[in-house]
Amino acid sequence: MTYAARIASGCRRESTPISLERLREAETLVFAGDLAAALDLLNDSLLAGLPLAQRDEARRLRAGVLLRLNLPADALAELDRLGQVNAGDQVQRSVAHAAGGDLAAAIDAMQRALDAAPDAHFRCRALERLILLHMKADQFDQADALLAAQPADWRWLHLRGDLAAARGDLADAAAYYTAALNDLAARLPADQSAIAANQHLQLHCKRAAVFRRLRRFDSARRDLALARSLLAH
């Protein structure tokens, strides 16, 4: 019997009421990487009579575990059971649809997440994911329209480079990656943190790949040398 079927049948057994402490125990198991144990704990406990907010919190946790176990259909079934849906839930739905190969549904869910974004940071992340989904679906015009409305900083220049590379506009891709690196160096130097170094590393590797496609091998080698130097950060 599938996980979703067991839930639908109520597992044919008594459920142990879950307390906030048991929910936190499940979160600890997830953090430790013991997904099977976390899922067992949530499976046995979740369907008892919980307050709505706590019940939804546990279901979100269970959906996340199911996604990490590569069970997107079961994760979607869990998300369908939420009492109240927020923007983060739409992101999870998008991830599950994408994992299941339904890019149209993934795009639709991410657009709903963007529309319900609670703050500027969330909106930025949702927009970035939406653009990447459009690109994955070969919907380049839609991705371009979203990028055209964004400021010329390194995050969006990076994505413009990705889009140009996907379209085969290699000279434009190299130019966008260069502009992104210049802006990133001014805002977030590579030696500032491991996260900053990783952003520089990604851009140098991507520009090197574009230079190779342009047969600019000396430029590609320079970028790869710079990328190797960043691995020490």
Task: Spell out the blueprint of helices and strands.
Blueprint: H1 3-8, H2 20-32, H3 35-45, H4 52-68, H5 72-79, H6 87-99, H7 103-115, H8 120-136, H9 140-148, H10 154-167, H11 170-187, H12 194-213, H13 217-230
Q: What does this protein structure show overall?
A:
The chain is an all-alpha fold. The chain has a domain at 151-233: Serine Threonine Protein Phosphatase 5, Tetratricopeptide repeat (Alpha Horseshoe), CATH 1.25.40. The model is unreliable at 3-18 (pLDDT under 50). The chain is built from 13 helices and no strands.
Structural features:
single chain; 233 residues; mainly alpha; Serine Threonine Protein Phosphatase 5, Tetratricopeptide repeat; 74% helix; disordered N terminus
Tell me briefly what this model is:
By secondary structure, the protein is mostly helical.
Number of DSSP strand runs: 0
CATH fold-level topology of the domain at 151-233: Serine Threonine Protein Phosphatase 5, Tetratricopeptide repeat
The number of distinct helices, counting runs of at least 4 residues, comes to 13
Shape, please? Answer: elongated
Secondary-structure element order, as H and E? Answer: HHHHHHHHHHHHH
